[in-house]
Amino acid sequence: MPSNSAKNNPRTKLYLITGFLGAGKTTFIKQFLRLFSEQRVELIINEFGKEGVDGTLLRTYGAMMSEINGGSIFCACRLDQFEKVLSESAARCPDVIIVEASGLSDPTGVRRLFCQTDRFPHIDYQGAVCLMDAVRFPKLYKTARTCTKQLASSDIAVINRVDLATAEQLEETVSLLRGQRPDMRFLETTYGQIPDDFLDFFSQVQDIGEDAMPKTADLTLRRLTVSISPEMTPYELQKFIEMFAEETFRVKGLIQTTDGLMLADCVGNVVSVTPYSDVPASKETIGCLTVLSGAGMPVYSSVKKAAAWYPSTVQSISYE
């Protein structure tokens, strides 16, 4: 039975943000936070890399933040840590908790986890938002089972990057969404932008029927960490990543270059290297590219071949 203090404390609303690597979750969260400008918000950020780049990018937005790196919060290896972080966050009684799940995680059991009233009596689970990349989703839907599980476990879909998609790609993305979740509300957008009344979407969510969704293991992940010398130029960094980009799911990192600190971000074969001047990153975060790929993708050999072109500035490649 909940204690008297549990009864008296207002319940904290919890939102889950999911979606495959590169769908735009971090950009969306920046927009989502705007809806809670007058409330106390805590973020729980989950990344597969050892050092969390997304957490660094979000620190400027004022919310208290906890990071869980090195695996999915919904797999056995990280679940205990996640429950501990969630309990600590809930104990501080914020108005809102936003959880960003790793882009490779299967959140099938999330509703059951967040609705454990005996363990999390102050949590009021509002639902999950699934970010979808309008350009890449049709291909990923057919090759990465995690995508179907993320969509199946969510309550609202946000189809992002519609400005970059062809009419055929957008039509196929919507068709796949409608085929799996015909009644799901969805929004088409660019740069993760959402309307001021977006929270009203959650008032219409329906029970998904979790028992109908069999558990699927997280996508087999291959992760490389590439250490880059500050003597590399931004142009060289761009060209280096382009040489192996198509063999990856995602490449991301804060890299010190001859022209200053740069944010390197790659989704599919689209590589972006831009100046970074927001919240200062930790020394441990700077200088390392996290390269994520799946089983059967020849990423290690591709990165080694690319590194051979930059022997003085690619310092090391570690394979995990």
Automatic annotation (TrEMBL):
Q: Which InterPro entries match?
A: CobW/HypB/UreG_nucleotide-bd (IPR003495), P-loop_NTPase (IPR027417), Zinc-reg_GTPase_activator (IPR051316)
Gene3D superfamilies of this UniProt entry?
P-loop containing nucleotide triphosphate hydrolases (3.40.50.300)
Which Pfam families does the record associate with it? cobW
Where does the source fall among the domains of life? Bacteria
Q: Show where the CobW/HypB/UreG nucleotide-binding domain sits.
A: 15-185
Q: Which SUPFAM superfamilies match?
A: P-loop containing nucleoside triphosphate hydrolases
- Gene Ontology cellular component annotations, sorted alphabetically: cytoplasm
PANTHER family recorded? COBW DOMAIN-CONTAINING PROTEIN, COBW-RELATED
This chain belongs to which protein, by name? CobW/HypB/UreG nucleotide-binding domain-containing protein
Q: To which species is this protein native?
A: Merdimmobilis hominis
